[in-house]
Amino acid sequence: MTYTRQTYTYKTVQDCQIQADVYRLSDVGKRPAILWIHGGALIIGDRRMLRTEQAELYLTAGYTVVSIDYRLAPETKLPAILEDLQDAYSWMHGQGSALFGIDPDRVAVIGHSAGGYLTLMAGLCVHPRPKALVSFYGYGDIAGDWYSRPDPHYSKEPTVLPRVAYRGVGGSVIAGSSFGEVSDQRWLFYLFCRQQGLWPKEVTGHDPHTEPQAFEDYCPVRQITKDYPPTLLLHGDQDTDVPFGLSKHMAAALKQQQVPHRLITMEGLGHGFDAVPDRSLQGEPMGLKHPRVGEAFDAVLAFLREQMDR
């Protein structure tokens, strides 16, 4: 497959350049587009986390893919992270046609984990609203006990001390944290947050137990209306990072408001199933080679086709 990947700076804050990678086929013509959002608990990760096989799958299906960075917590709090999402979408919608040949009226948003959360927030905070949302093991509630209390799964790991946790964060604003020593340090901060139930406070600057009202606008499951975009949810029922129940609750809220949606339950699979469907396997991640993962992505493409053509 012949395609290009070009990097753009869609926004600059102080000295921090916030970038996007655009994957597009080399032919001419306006194509529908996907805004792709990486995971990493809003603390780790960058736009390069988009797996090549998934980018090529979307490209083959006829989409241009725009994978974005955004500023990371805790140096940047959630409201400003959402501003980055809004600005990336506005840049893509306003300039994407001239810069890289997209149809601005046919844009879907896809995200994984924390990117899935931002995808669900996009249904509320970007305009015009996307044609479709696809959330891989995302979440619509950031104030619940799963995030605001010590997590049983992560508490099995060696305890991270505060002096170790804060060693790798708190400096200058960053957008994107590639894998390596810096990300390892930021991972320890995330692990500390999960062990102590501090993620909501560190990411938003507010305590959900004493300031619950501060989280109303940042929990999509509480804000669904009939105008919310059609949504596809994919989640493993053995997810130890983001509880499967969060996608079930999101599906129930969508159903209540009669929003077109579907929840695909990946039975027996956990977090990151699209890369490593069976974590007991040794060697390279199977990804799309796993039959059930391949079937799930077939469903994603079918959902996108259905919604983009409306």
Molecular structure report:
With 310 residues, this protein is an alpha/beta fold. The protein has a single domain, classed as Rossmann fold, CATH 3.40.50. Helix content is 34%, strand content 20%. The protein has 9 helices and 8 strands. It has an 8-stranded mixed β-sheet, with helices on both faces.
Helical content stands at 25-40%
Helix count from the secondary structure assignment: 9
pLDDT below 50 for ≥5 consecutive residues: which ranges? none
Shape: globular
State the major sheet. 8 strands, mixed
Structural class by SSE content = alpha/beta
Widest beta sheet: strand line-up: 1-2-4-3-5-6-7-8
Cα-to-Cα separation, first versus last residue: 28 Å
Number of domains: 1
Mean pLDDT: 94
Strand count = 8
Percentage of residues in strands: 15-25%
Q: What string, H for helix and E for strand, traces the elements in order?
A: EEEHEHEHEHHHHEHEH
Return the CATH architecture: 3-Layer(aba) Sandwich
Radius of gyration, CA atoms, in whole angstroms: 18 Å
Q: Which class in CATH terms?
A: Alpha Beta
CATH fold label: Rossmann fold
What would CATH call the homologous superfamily? Alpha/Beta hydrolase fold, catalytic domain
